Amino acid sequence: MAADMRLPTIRKQVSLSSSLSALDGKDLVVPGDVITSDTGFMRGHGTYMDEEKLTASVAGEVERVNKLICVRPLKTRFNGEVGDVVVGRITEVQQKRWKVETNSRLDSVLLLSSVNLPGGELRRRSAEDELTMRDYLQEGDLISAEVQSVFSDGALSLHTRSLKYGKLGQGVLVQLSPSLIKRQKTHFHNLPCGASIILGNNGFVWLYPTPGHQDEEAGGYYTSLEPVSLSDREVISRLRNCLLALGAHKVLLYDTSVLYCYESSLPHQIKDILKPEVMEEIVMMTRQKLVELEG
Amino acid sequence: MENVLCLNRSTGDTSVACCMGSLRTDDLRVDGRGCEDYRHMEIETEMVSNTDGSAKVTLGHTDVLVGVKAEIGKPRPMVPDEGYLEFFVDCSANATPEFEGRGGDELGMELSNTLYKVFNNRYSVDLKSLSISPGEHCWVLYVDVLLLQCDGNLFDAISVAIKAALFNTKIPKVHISEDEEGGKEIELSDDPYDCMRLNVENVPCIVTLCKVGHRHVVDATLQEKACSVASLIISVTHKGTVTCVRKVGGGSLDPESIFEMTETGKRVGKALHAPLMELLQEEESLGKKRQKVGFLDTTLIVAVSHCP
């Protein structure tokens, strides 16, 4: 019950000797750094010409493709591509579409024609469907969806035309940077520790208790409000703290790294995971395990 | 689960349901804390060099900076032999974009009014020691609070920071001399170490209790605050004396829950003071050897494991 008070300390520089070799091929720049003085290159995103010299305008790594130089920023808003899985929150209900907040520069769009109607019917959307939009998705609801296309202004068009997407039920949302989520074949995982996770490409990660039985016609429409058991909740809280610890130390997130972090955190109490020294210890152990896995 | 539907929609029904469900039967919040646990707190004093006392408190992601300046002024007519404190809370636009321009003024007014109420008694700070010459001169302590980051539980962080800043305040000693015409002249001593310190033993700490579902929690994050209908702010001294109780929020509280929350607040508040004073004494004893962190809260992580 006692509050944990302490004097602040300067956080130490953390670097792993094993990953230094990986840094050889990468060029990290900060805004204002001169990339090259050679005028033969085309300048891409994240760069600008400053007195004949190519200079970086964002903090990130330099990418060179033949004659094109661009800088990919380390921390940025979500730039969606077709096929990305996102977790978003409904912000507005408009005529024939919903506006979804997905941590990108513009709110994404979920058209009424891109969602599954309850009962799995396949028909043209009528005026009545438009009026009952709010019964399905309201402001504040969380959904998982896939990016169908990108509009010319950069806004994403989402769809939930599969049974695995749709409105999300009880669980915990963790908001992290999109650049930390690794692109994989599947973003829906049932972790062996007893919970399930959706790693949205936009940095939103959804943790929820593994559903007991699969309801065929439910398909993202039915949300269960049954109380979740204590053991499930403990697993989810622990996973949430592990995700925050990995995010704070900029570790790439995918199912294996999350699982290793969870295992490394088991000796500690759930609430202790967020203390700086415990966080460091857990992340160091996770990194070591990942390095062992690689080679 | 009956009251799930009528709660604030901005967090979505289902995350609210999860939040409340775990509190109903067990002592488990989303981040693993119990109902009466505080987040990780870091306190540092003496960071702003042009104030007489300053302190910075980081509670989770809430960042608060307090500066205390002592100036000579005229005492209030009702109490000529006492000094007084003036509070001002500035919600910086750094905290959230909503505070830009005049957006943070309302919250700042509410916070400073509560602080006035909390300190409006004779025992929190010994005001008589702030008097220089009764009826003519006294010390006025201007306490300025700056909110750098908001992640819930502002009152608690502000009160801990004020207590630390007042502990750190060094008021120069004055000598009053008479000159030829009989008027009084005030001389401040030149020695920077010749100063008076305040006794902050009785300074209260504020505990905010938010009612979520059927239970109440201490140190709520922004997410938990969105799920709560009403909160109780209670300021407690180290002896367990209550100086101020205030209810905020749009919902209603049952008299029984108010009683329970007050009891919890008294217990939690009383337990805050001892570790805080210990930490402040420890920091003081380090003296010149103390490593000043200041605002350099840099996470220097060099190895970025990106997609190859």
Summarize the structure.
Chain A is α+β, with helices and mostly antiparallel strands.
Number of helices of chain B: 5
CATH fold call of chain B: Ribosomal Protein S5, domain 2
Largest sheet of chain B: 6 strands, mixed
**What's the arrangement of strands in the largest beta sheet of chain A?**
9-10-11-13-12
Mean pLDDT of chain B: 82
Question: Which spans of chain B have pLDDT < 50 for at least 5 consecutive residues?
Answer: 1-13, 298-308
DSSP strand content of chain A: 25-35%
Question: What is the assigned CATH homologous superfamily of the domain at 28-73 in chain A?
Answer: RNA polymerase II/Efflux pump adaptor protein, barrel-sandwich hybrid domain
Number of strands of chain B: 14
SSE pattern of chain B: HEEEEHEEHEEEEEEHEEH
CATH architecture identity of chain B? 2-Layer Sandwich
Using the CA coordinates, give the radius of gyration of chain A.
22 Å
CATH architecture of the domain at 28-73 in chain A: Beta Barrel
Family (chain A): Belongs to the RRP4 family.
GO cellular component, one term (chain A): cytoplasmic exosome (RNase complex)
Domain RRP4 S1 (chain A): 77-149
Keywords (chain A): Cytoplasm, Exonuclease, Exosome, Hydrolase, Nuclease, Nucleus, Phosphoprotein, RNA-binding, rRNA processing
